[in-house]
Amino acid sequence: MSELDPGDGWSAGSTAGFIDPVPMEDDPTELFPGDAGTLDADVRRVLVQLLRRKFLLAEKNPAQWRTLLENQQIIESRMHDLFVRLVVDHDRGIAYKQQVRSTELDVPILLRDEPYNRAETLVLVHLRTVFQRERGTGETSARVDIEELEQTVLTYFDPNDHNLARTQQEVRSAVQRLVTEGLLVEESAGRYRITPLVEVVLSTAKLAELEQWLRERNEATA
């Protein structure tokens, strides 16, 4: 008797023991050949942006911010799979990631810290100080000029270094990095608005620590 002999209880109209076929139109849409992902393209883009950049800003990327809030749970889940924590600050409109670290669990480190150099740190201290001062007076935003930044930051450099052009370039390069990262927004030539991101990068405690270090350094060189 053959395998498909009707005597085995099989008939052309029966599907017993088989998986029901799925209509082609119900298959998950592949974004590229062999795509095994399950997230929509827009959600994947937000996930990639969060992994590539330090911050996602609601003000700068409103569409991606909405996508993040609508899909926060699944995005958090994907990031947790990589031992990365997602922080969403709704009040400031900022999302960023943190490397999970544990003394009890062997955690592979995915995120590497990119420390700020001397000029960038000094610019940050000034920006954070101005932002805190303006917010303390009830202002909703804080702004600085490049000339003001240069004059303040240059006071912390070695007074015996007479290469002013090089030092100014360091400060301007520092400002450009902070613009790229979203801590500053250039509203007009040489005029910048400080974003709330500066509070995330430089906490009040860290600011006080750096200000104390700068005071001691200035006293030592006076």
Could you write a compact summary of the structure shown?
This is DUF4194 domain-containing protein. InterPro entries: JetB. This protein has helices spanning 41-52, 62-70, 72-80, 118-136, 146-154, 164-181, 197-201, 204-221; strands at residues 55-57, 84-89, 94-99, 142-145, 184-188, 191-194.
CATH homology-level superfamily of the largest domain: MukE-like family, C-terminal domain
Number of helices: 8
* CA radius of gyration: 27 Å
Total beta-strand segments: 6
Q: Segments where pLDDT lies below 50 for 5+ residues?
A: 1-19, 21-27
In CATH terms, what is the fold-level topology of the largest domain?
Arc Repressor Mutant, subunit A
Can you give the mean pLDDT?
82
SS-derived structural category: alpha+beta
What is the CATH C level class of the largest domain, in words? Mainly Alpha
The number of domains is 2
For the biggest sheet, the summary is: 3 strands, antiparallel
Q: Which architecture of the largest domain per CATH?
A: Orthogonal Bundle
Beta-strand content? 5-15%
Strand order of the largest sheet: 1-3-2
| Overall morphology | elongated
Protein name: DUF4194 domain-containing protein
Organism: Saccharomonospora cyanea NA-134
Region (Disordered): 1-20
Pfam family, one: DUF4194
Describe the model:
The protein has 222 residues and is an alpha+beta fold. The chain folds into two domains: 64 residues, Arc Repressor Mutant, subunit A; 104 residues, MukE-like family, C-terminal domain (Arc Repressor Mutant, subunit A), CATH 1.10.10. It has eight helices and six strands, in the order H-E-H-H-E-E-H-E-H-H-E-E-H-H. The strands form two sheets. It has a three-stranded antiparallel sheet with strand order 1-3-2. A three-stranded antiparallel sheet has the order 4-6-5. Helix 1 packs across helix 2, helix 4 crosses helix 6 and helix 5 packs across helix 6. The protein is elongated, with a radius of gyration of 27 Å. This is DUF4194 domain-containing protein.
